[in-house]
Amino acid sequence: MQTNPPYERPPMIEQLRAEGRGLPFRPAKRNRPEPTPPSPEDIRRMFTIENGNRWLELARREPEAKQLFGELWHQGELCMLFADTNIGKSILAVQIGESIARGQTIAPFTCQAPPARVLYIDFELSQTQFGLRYSQGEEDYQFSDNFFRAQYNFIPDPPPNVNENELLIAAIEYKVNQAKATVLIIDNITCLRGGTENSAVALALMKSLKSLKTEHNLSILVLAHTPKRRNATQPISADDLHGSKLLINFADSAFAIGKSTADNDLCYLKQIKQRNTRQRYGHDNVALCRIQKPGSFLHFQFEGNSPERQHLLTRNAADRRQLANKIATLSANGHSQREISKLLGIGLATVNLLLRRGLERSDGEGYAVALMTNDQENRPHVKEAAMCDSLPGEGREGYSEPGITYEESPDTDYTTAQDIQPPPMTNGVMTNDQTIAPHLIPKPYWGMKTSVIDMALTPELLEQILRTTTRENSIRKEGK
Which domains does the chain carry? Predict the structure, then answer.
């Protein structure tokens, strides 16, 4: 007969007490069993201790870790490759796996290792999607016999009382042994994680991968994502890997794919973390590449190097004027604010703010004017700001850049807002490449109420924006 501790009533008594009070019976949570003390054998095996000279001697006996993908990935490493969605992580991963399977270099990234058996675990693509990427009409690309792809078969009802992550790791280990692979590529970690934002889950996952790497002498490449709303004005860093920081802390190396803002078809590779080599592809020397498919093999073609800053989104005065012109043109063409936000890749609040400013600060004729006090009107030589964070009326939505210096001109040459001529119009709509001449733009000064963006708006354009905004407001009200 099972005995209960003196401080715990039998479940039957607790149930009767609950029924007598008219309450539902909720069994008390059982206390966790006492942990068993570690065995002496486990304690002895936990660490290996040698003096420093002995460790150096042992290190010299180890074979040199050869490059698998240049300085970005070496033999025996657990490497992370992360990027935004639909940039080409899977394309590059298959290209790397095929090059290792053949023992061939992807210029300029050297493959020093001899041909090896590669297992590519694909959680992303179906059989048809994979076939479309590596075929051209009736022609199929001929992969190396050392390249193996494992497609995930979704199990709607997993076995009860089985940890899904442990099941996946065990299944991957089984396929590694079956394929006799020495290189493992997992696409991607999202299907393994179970929520890598949680540090405990991330730690358990990385321990499992580290154990798999050590037991089978594997080189592992794991694909991962960046956050959906990554700031495109900032360089890529370790903080952009989605999930817990432990993911990249436990990795031996990491690199990322970035999207260039200068060219929609251009990408770049950046080295994020390395332990077996120096950093070659850092912020001042990223590797440029494009996705190409001249035949039946979809792959990246590398085109040299450049600093990363040339491919980041900038927020200077010229970009702001061009952005305002594009927003105004799209609105005049009948696009909604939400459509403009998606087309230009900017926030909806930014679109709404720029359009609203143009409407609120226009006079009866539709022209935006600079409102000055009587003292300022009588004094043309107004003290101007030599250093400004942003143009007057701006400085929000991430546009301001501290320390921008605006070029000063003689006070006698100062041009007021009334002297500014609107840009030429084509069929009543401003084109994207039409901007205000620089010499017609007044310098910002203290007390100025109207921004240069407002001065670029013409009566016809303002009328069209007003009609569009009114129509959107009416639709929004009807939707409520």
Answer: 62-311 (3.40.50.300), 317-479 (no CATH)
